[in-house]
Amino acid sequence: QVHLVESGGGLVQPGGSLRLSCAASTIIYGTYIMGWYRQAPGKERERVLTIVTGGDTTYADSVKGQYTISRDKAKNTVDLQMNNLKHEDTDIYYCWLKKGQQNYWGQGNPVTVSS
Question: What is the pLDDT of residues 7-27, one digit of tens each?
Answer without folding.
Answer: 999 999 999 999 999 999 988
